[in-house]
Amino acid sequence: MIEAYGLTKRYGAKTAVYNLSFQVRPGAVTGFLGPNGSGKSTTMRMILGLDAPTSGRVTVGGHNFRDLPNAPRQVGALLDAKAVHGGRSARNHLLSLAQLSGIPARRVDEVLGVVGLQDVGKKRSKGFSLGMGQRLGIAAALLGDPQVLLFDEPVNGLDPEGILWVRNLMRRLASEGRTVFVSSHLMSEMAQTADHLIVIGRGQLMADMPVQEFIERNSIGFARVRTPDGEPEQREKLVSALQEAGGRTQPEEDGALRVTGLPLPRISDLAHGADVRLWELSPHQASLEEAYMRLTQSSVDYRSTTDMRAGLQQPVGAPAMAAPTAAPPGMAPPQAVPGMAAAPQMPPAPQGNPYAAQQAAPQPGVPQPGAPQPGTAPQPGPAPQPGTVPQPGAPEGGTLQMRAPQAPADGASAPNPYAAGAAAPPAGPMAKGAPAAAGGDATSTAKNEGEDA
Ligand SMILES: Nc1ncnc2c1ncn2[C@@H]1O[C@H](COP(=O)(O)OP(=O)(O)OP(=O)(O)O)[C@@H](O)[C@H]1O
Questions:
Q1: How many Cβ atoms sit within 10 Å of the Cβ of residue 406?
Q2: For 240-369, where are the E strands, in sequence order?
Q3: What is 222-284's CATH number, 3.30.70.100, 3.10.560.10, 1.10.10.10, 3.20.20.70?
Q4: Going by CATH, does the domain composed of 1-221+285-302+379-453 fall within 3.90.550.10?
Q5: Per-domain residue ranges of the chain
Q6: Is the CB of 16 inside a 6 Å radius of any atom of ligand 1?
Q7: Which N-terminal stretch is annotated as signal sequence (predicted)?
């Protein structure tokens, strides 16, 4: 069991994690979700004793990590698969971790087999692909056969077969009664892997509940209703009956109706009462990804803007001017207003360039509007408007822990443990970001030329 109480971490003026309290229970896979920069890695580092909390505490099995007896046998972690001495073979890397932790050497070959690297165990890890590196990091986490496992983005770089393998591994570890805490950005993957979710935004807890409950509370369910094709009067009768009963209807692209505000049995009764035959009446629910986007869109720190290519293209007949909505070069992307939640909208489709219709013929060497550009991302949506609050799925008198992240009193003058004079990470048993069974030495960068086949 991992337990955090009022966990807060400040780096100078930056509050990375604020007043976070949660439990990660054994026997389940707990997904740890949050937008980029929301504090997931910082939280994991504090759990592993690699960063000291500014206030609050976090324990593993009731102990601070550093006070755990024989920590590497109790906690395994994958934080950064790249933090491996590339000159060492996979086997030697694991062997050195095993020796430091009093783990028998034969265990190294076992875990190499578990992660499917047995045939490349003698190869230097610097030649490994991203996916192979992830597998090596997972092997290191499994080395001490620990009861508590932390994985930061374990499926990064894995192919579909590898992703499936990680999913099954996580589920098996949990079914053996272990505590499995895993961060990921792949919502579809989390939906299939995790039992429980902890969601943070700007370092603060936004939700802590089973996956299914999270989806139900943060998404709007709807019914799809279809009347017989070619009988528009049936459809019109049904729409009137549903609307009179307080339902909302929207046409779907395929001619069906999307109905919200009425439960399925009521829709069925209303159709029956209006003498309308139905070809389809089915319940629908948003995906975890949609639910997640609704909950976290107000706490996204990094939003892309449309690339207006100022100075590169001019609307025909218009003077050269900065595009009205483009941020000047170097200016930060739009930020959500701290303490204000965003309007409950899913991000709209990517916006085209508003000047596109006026543009001159393509110029050689000049990027064309609308064409996908490397490095540009779809516009995620309007900046949050002050005074709007998230509606969908908001619990009415429920127990959902859903909070619009507040800017904590930052205490700009709070001491920074990493400020000058404290360049070295806290002396701990495990290297910062090391993919190691806790207690590993993966920060070693010393040359070790004599190794490897
Ligand atoms: N050593 C540090 N010094 C200063 N700021 C830091 C440090 N480590 C993290 N931060 C800041 O703290 C915030 C949280 O970072 P963190 O890496 O924990 O987020 P994350 O949720 O893991 O992000 P991602 O999903 O992108 O990996 C970020 O704004 C980051 O810039």
A1: 13
A2: 248-251, 257-260, 280-284
A3: 3.30.70.100
A4: no
A5: 1-221+285-302+379-453, 222-284
A6: yes
A7: none
Ligand 1 atom, smallest distance to 34 CA = 21
Task: For residue range 183-221, list pLDDT tens digits in order.
Answer: 988 888 888 899 999 999 889 998 999 988 888 777 777
Residue where the block lists tokens 């949609």: 290
Candidates 309, 412, 328, 318; CA nearest to 370 is: 309
Is residue 167 helix, strand or coil? helix
Q: What is the mean pLDDT of the chain?
A: 72
Query: Which protein residue has the closest C-alpha to ligand 1 atom 3?
Result: 11
Indicate if ligand 1 lies below 6 Å from the C-beta of 156: no
Q: pTM of the predicted model, to two decimals? A: 0.63
Pocket test residue of 7, 8, 40, 182 for ligand 1, highest count of atoms within 8 A of CB = 40
Separation CA 237–CA 50 (nearest Å): 65
Under the banding of pLDDT at 50, 70 and 90, the label for residue 300 is low
- DSSP conformation class of 391: -
Give the C-alpha separation, 156 to 141, whole Å: 16
Confirm or reject: Cβ of 248 under 6 Å from ligand 1: no
Distance 446 CA to ligand 1 centre (A): 27
C-beta neighbour count of 270 within 10 angstroms: 20
Instruction: Using the structure block, give the residue that is written with the tokens 């087999």.
Output: 113
Amino acid at 84: V
Q: Are strands 14-24 and 75-78 parallel, antiparallel or unpaired?
A: unpaired
Give ipTM to 2 decimals: 0.97
Across 110-148, b (16+ Cβ under 10 Å) vs e yields: ebbeebbbeebbebbbeebeebbbbbbbbbbbbbbebbb
CA of 83 to the centre of ligand 1 (A): 17
